[in-house]
Amino acid sequence: MKVQILLQILFRLLRTRKANAAELARETEVSERSIHRYVEELSVAGVPIDIIRGRKGGICLPDTYRLPSNFFTKEEYAAAVNALSALYEQLHDDALRTALEKLTRQQKSDARDLTLSGNILVDSGTWGDAYGFSETLKFLESAAEARACVDMTYVDREGTVSRRTVEPHLLIYKQNIWYLYAWCRKRDGFRLFRVGRIRGARDTGERFERRHFERADLPLKFRFEDKELVRLRLAVQKAALPDVEEWLGMGSVRAEGEEIFAEAEVPDGGVLLSKLLSFGGSVRVLEPPHIAAQLRERAAAVCGLYPAAQDEEAAAQDGETAAQDGEAAAQDGETATQGGPDRTT
């Protein structure tokens, strides 16, 4: 019974995205207090249910949430839809109807690829959570196209959680990171939000008029506004040449005889160090000296985390030798104890 109620609540929220405790209590024939307990159990299980207070609030499931892509295989989807359709034709049960609607809607949603234009296909997945991130990106793209106001929960780099209503205007892809450029009603101005830091978002049902902005208004250098620029000069091995060309641009790379050099003005800081470390030993910093020194310090710190196998073997051998010495000493002590009385007679 408990599992059935949990699924009934989940399917209802997947279908309508919002409900209040009284509605769910009537549909499941339990108390409102029990509904709150079931909602809490769903949250603990990983379903991002949100409680919104106020007249227009309720128990909400973000529009960015979908069941995991591997929840059903394609064949299981078809079998489930066919079975529920046949049962509904016979029973006309509301629970069967809502489950059928949920499965059909989920299947259509999963079939939609994210395309930012008719000629560009973007694989938006991240290493950690490809499916959830893609769903968020698809939802924001649709909201921008439909001029739909979005109520979202955002977590900044310091871990501060805020809730705000935004008017999404543009998605920006910069330095391998997706950003949402939106008018924030809380701040009364355009703001950039990292898509990966949006915990949940839903369509409020309100539509907005697009606000005018110029390309020059876009903070495309937002990551480096507070960073000093340095003139970077590198010695590049052939193995790293394609990656360096894509990073700094082919115009920044030149060959001098058998050697390859790259030179460009880049923002100083941790992002630069991480990028240079990603090349391993295929790139060597010639200038500026402080970058080379910082890389040496970071490399030494990394090496300290991974002792060489030879050192580990030597340590193991030392431990084994010490154990053998201990056994020998114990045997000598035992022999001395046994031989003591003989010498005194």
Automatic annotation (TrEMBL):
<feature type="domain" description="Helix-turn-helix type 11">
    <location>
        <begin position="6"/>
        <end position="57"/>
    </location>
</feature>
<dbReference type="InterPro" id="IPR057727">
    <property type="entry name" value="WCX_dom"/>
</dbReference>
<dbReference type="InterPro" id="IPR026881">
    <property type="entry name" value="WYL_dom"/>
</dbReference>
<dbReference type="InterPro" id="IPR036388">
    <property type="entry name" value="WH-like_DNA-bd_sf"/>
</dbReference>
<protein>
    <submittedName>
        <fullName>YafY family transcriptional regulator</fullName>
    </submittedName>
</protein>
<feature type="compositionally biased region" description="Low complexity">
    <location>
        <begin position="316"/>
        <end position="334"/>
    </location>
</feature>
<feature type="domain" description="WYL">
    <location>
        <begin position="136"/>
        <end position="202"/>
    </location>
</feature>
<dbReference type="Pfam" id="PF08279">
    <property type="entry name" value="HTH_11"/>
</dbReference>
<dbReference type="InterPro" id="IPR036390">
    <property type="entry name" value="WH_DNA-bd_sf"/>
</dbReference>
<dbReference type="InterPro" id="IPR013196">
    <property type="entry name" value="HTH_11"/>
</dbReference>
<dbReference type="InterPro" id="IPR028349">
    <property type="entry name" value="PafC-like"/>
</dbReference>
<dbReference type="InterPro" id="IPR051534">
    <property type="entry name" value="CBASS_pafABC_assoc_protein"/>
</dbReference>
<dbReference type="Pfam" id="PF13280">
    <property type="entry name" value="WYL"/>
</dbReference>
<feature type="domain" description="WCX">
    <location>
        <begin position="230"/>
        <end position="301"/>
    </location>
</feature>
<dbReference type="Pfam" id="PF25583">
    <property type="entry name" value="WCX"/>
</dbReference>
<feature type="region of interest" description="Disordered">
    <location>
        <begin position="311"/>
        <end position="345"/>
    </location>
</feature>
